[in-house]
Amino acid sequence: MDDTRQRHGQDASSQQYAEELARLLVQQGFTHWFYCPGSRDAPLGYALNHLAASHRLDLHVRIDERDAAFMALGAARAGHPAVLVMTSGTAVGNALPAVMEAAHAGVPLLILSADRPAALRGTGANQTTWQPGIFGEFVRFAADIQPGITSAVLSEVVSEVAAACRGEAPPPHPATNEKQFPATGPAHLNASFIEPLAPPEAIEAFAATSASVSANAREEPFDPDQSPRGTLLIAGDLSDATYADLREVVKNAGIPVLAEPQTAWRCHPHAMRGYAKAAGTTLSAVVEHNLERVIVAGRPTLTRPITRLISRRDIPVETVGAPGTTVNLAGNIARHWTDAATLACELEKVAKPSSVATPRHPTAETPENWLEMWRAAGENAVAALTRDWGFHRAAQTIWDSTMTVSEPLDLYLGASLTIRVFDTVARNFARNLIPAPEQADVQSVNHQDGAFGGHRVFTNRGLAGIDGTIAAAWGAALARRQPMRLVLGDVSFFHDLGALCHGRVETVPNLQVIVINNGGGRIFGSLEHGAAPADTFTRMFLTPQVGDICELARAAGWQAVQIGSPAELVAALCQPVRGLSLMEVILPST
């Protein structure tokens, strides 16, 4: 059965919905739970942690969904029907091998995947894909449940899924009988959750902390009445094809470029650092009142301030790019330009006057123009974040070293907190994004902004999963046939630990892995979950792992070194990338 259940009307909170769903499944005999941390499945995490504390279920937290799926399979095979819980995106796909095994072995395994609301599918929203039906004919039952489902219908769905796992329901597909699957087997519940994704007390505590931080910030917000007005160009993944046609007109018009670090647009002379931080703090009032037009190239997905900006309905928000490469998160896109050259012609006529307009009430402190205001606000944000030794300062050092080295050297960035930190601090060094000599026939953007050559920046932002990051960098280094530097967090490292190993007679690339060890999934600390009780946050979100990173790398044949200070990092980065090497950058406890 493949079913979508929802109703319209007043919705219960995501937390209440998650608690009821977990309670109903426990009542059906699902008492062994394997939970993989994420943001979208956080309501389930809070609910499970509470039920585990009252001894109503056995809870196990794992960071690798594939491993967790097989652990749940093992528990179910041993006679204890088990549930695997994960967040949206590639996390769900990692369960497929275990589901296939469960289907053929008749093992009652339940996959409970969290999801964004169905309305966001196909819009370019972060970590959003078509999860319903992903397991095909391998599951005995599948349902897609949406926010607002009634208690009665939810109870009915849970009863159906339990019956299907126990073999008490008809198979979900007519063809299943031909495949001779046992009656018992796996099932899939896909549950969509809407924000907020934390209990009220955590949300309130987070809001109070955020307000306190803002009140104590040294930087005064810009006054809209004393600030210019203008246009922004925002560039995310899949935006590179628009760069050649729009580069000059955007430069001449004085339009600030808010570009993610893996894009060609980050090479633009108007590419800003610290833009998301500025947009959410010192420039928030200016963004609200003085922004006249937004042009979005590709799919920007990194930060909440930018997501809010491109979802606005009170100003024209336009997209540019080929079909399937743009966003429409809120159904608010005023115009879509499939041809960047046509947009360039239009911008030549209308963009420059608004982009450099003077303030309504100029003063001696007024920024020179719209562009310089964004540059000043962004640089102030970066200066504050890099003043002390931490992730931002380490990232800035790594970026500067990589982009200024004389030999070809590529950079691969982890998809979670790592790329967001680099997005904040990365300077707009010109990068000639040309293919390596051995790959001269490969199509690639060729920038002529400056003398730096051969530096490509890669990341996995299609669905923004942390899985397979080391393996992906390994593959890119092999294909490019030049040195590759990968930067990722400690959780991402442990998630892809198996990628350190290789066959004894296989070719290895020149790959340097830099692990930023900040003691777990710190990205959750920047969200509402950071205000949860310390024990809950540590177990369900931070998930610090057992194991010595350098020793694990050495056991797989890598050269490995620990870095504990800015000076040590600078010295280590001066060494050429040869063979397989790893740096563990240990950051101060936070």
Task: Give a short overview.
The chain has 590 residues and is of the alpha/beta class. Helices cover 36% and strands 15% of the residues.
Overall 3D geometry? Answer: globular
CATH homologous superfamily assignment of the largest domain: Thiamin diphosphate (ThDP)-binding fold, Pyr/PP domains
Strand content: 15-25%
Give helix % range.
25-40%
Mean pLDDT: 90
Runs in which pLDDT lies below 50 for 5 or more consecutive residues are: 353-357, 432-453
> What number of structural domains do the residues give?
3
Radius of gyration: 25 Å
What is the first-to-last residue Cα distance? 47 Å
CATH class of the largest domain: Alpha Beta
CATH architecture of the largest domain: 3-Layer(aba) Sandwich
- Cross-sheet strand order for the largest sheet: 1-6-7-5-4-2-3
Q: Assign the structural class, choosing from mainly alpha, mainly beta, alpha/beta, alpha+beta, or little secondary structure.
A: alpha/beta
Question: What oligomeric arrangement do these chains adopt?
Answer: single chain
Major sheet size, sense and barrel closure: 7 strands, parallel
